[in-house]
Request: fold
Amino acid sequence: MIKVFVPRDSTALSLGANRTAKAIQAEADKRGVEIVLIRNGSRGLFWLEPFVEVETEQGRVAFAPVKPKDVSSLFDANFTDALSNTAKEHSLYLGLVKELKWLKKQHRLTFARAGISDPVSLDDYIELDGYKGLKNALTMSSEDIVKAVTDSGLRGRGGAAFPTGIKWNTVLGASANQKYIVCNADEGDSGTFSDRMIMENDPFVLIEGMTIAGLAVGATQGYIYLRSEYPHSLAILNETISKAYNAGYLGDDIKGSGKSFYIEVRRAAGAYICGEETALLESLEGKRGLVRFKPPLPAVEGLFAKPTVVNNVISLATVPIILDKGAQYYADYGMGRSRGTLPIQLAGNIKQGGLVELAFGATLRELLYDYGGGSATGRPIKAVQVGGPLGAYLPESQFDTPLDYEAFAKIEAVLGHGGIVAFDDTVDMAKMACYAFEFCAIESCGKCTPCRIGAVRGLEVLHKMTSGQDYEKNLQLVRDLSDTMMSGSLCAMGGMTPYPVLSALNHFPKDFESQHK
Amino acid sequence: MSDTLAAADLIKIEAHIDAHKGLPGALLPLMHAIQDDIGYIPEEIYPQVSKAMALSIAEVHGFISFYHHFRTHPVGKHVLQVCRAESCQAMGSEKLEAYIKAKLSVDYHNTTADGKITLLPVYCLGNCACSPSVMMNEEIYGRVDMKQIDDIVNEVIHD
Reply:
């Protein structure tokens, strides 16, 4: 029977994938065409969802985007025989998936499996090289696992880019009767969805990565702190974790090794600040998500005051391939001190939005135009915000900056979690600067003064500026305030809110001036 | 809408409290369990929660009031969340927000007069490649326009 694939990822669902799947099954039944309908993950070509694939002897062939109204014409064209001439003539025919330029040019390491099969199938996962990293890890000493991760050059993909191996080594070296692995799945940055894509499209790789982390540092309990805005991720994680327990990949005596590891998903409750690791730990402990002073580092005194690895979803999901193919394999990708790949998320006003995993070093321009195809509205791209709501706005003159942690730091910007939000020339950057302060005021945990008060006052001063009151004086005030926030805040919330504000002011001064003149 | 707690709800809540006793960091999953079950977290139960979790009532209140997701009053039959974050703004979400507020005749954090829909802002649904996005209950919608808002709203209003 011919296999037909319709993704079940949230973005595919948001564009009607369930209706498309239903329509395909109903039409097949009506016409007596025997098919096996598989709900696979998404490959991340989101502008083409629902992205339907049909299996052929030459590989899978794509038809996209498929709406329910297209289904009847697809059957008319005999699309289930996707190599036939009639299928090729259909307007939604895209050809062999493996030949699609957008995918072919990417370096899919962390996302090697995303979109290929049914994400909740453990058998599929294993068939597609899953659990090979864990198999190797089970034969290695903790020190050797940590060394592999250190040698790979992997840095925290949540945004802070701290070397993962060094963090693990601290936890490994701490002595305690209990240690924890905490997965930060509180992906709150606008313009990012790579964590969600791992959890919905290849959840076992995260489970495997956490298990390896547990073996590496001697932790037996893992928590996934998952944002409440991701109900589909929650369902898929719970289903797959339960399958992993039943198959002996979690629990006591993992695959006869005598080692134990347990994972539990904890739902967050809509506070952006809980993406900050210490606020996250407070929240997991059942408290308000207030940022902690550091030191002590979570690696020394983390969850319930025990040594804790807190890693982002992508960092943990990248560990299995490092343990499978070796540290050098991963480190061979990238540039400078940014080793490996970065899953980049193209978002906002972009024609071809989705997930692009590439070795570090590609430029913003390549991402925005070669992959993104320019703006969705067809107007010039005026600015992009990289790295979420605390990331700087970059003007066209900086689009040739390579995606590299150090290169971004040099232009007072951040790569963060790899989200790129594009804006066309209708955007008012003064308004975006106001929004940055407004967001900080809403989401500040309130513990430190520069952030709690600074955001509120900053918004007031910007409003005064743009309404023409004492422009020069208030401009100086915003800069002074930003300086105080950057130097005096406890965490990145207050410390980086000035990034979008100042970059908007520095690169787009006309947007502020035009309103006061 | 009355906030008075029905006896049946109280029994459910007590069962949730019992089920979470002894769990490390129990307060977070316990509050989710209660809100998922009866739709909100009634303030009347703070004493029971504080006793079972060995916390002061102030700590329980402080916890619940900190998180945007938790609410202490009933909401409408359906919850419509509209994304206000940058990616959606880049695709015209401000106009969409204004349209939704006018259509439902409510502002954020309020419920329509017929008790059917509560309108909430949300800061990112992780659907940013297909902005603007909204979520009705747990159904997510991308590349939403005004016509589609009409469809989404009409579907729940008539059920």
Notes: Chain A has a mean pLDDT of 97. Chain A touches chain B through 62 residues (CB under 8 Å).
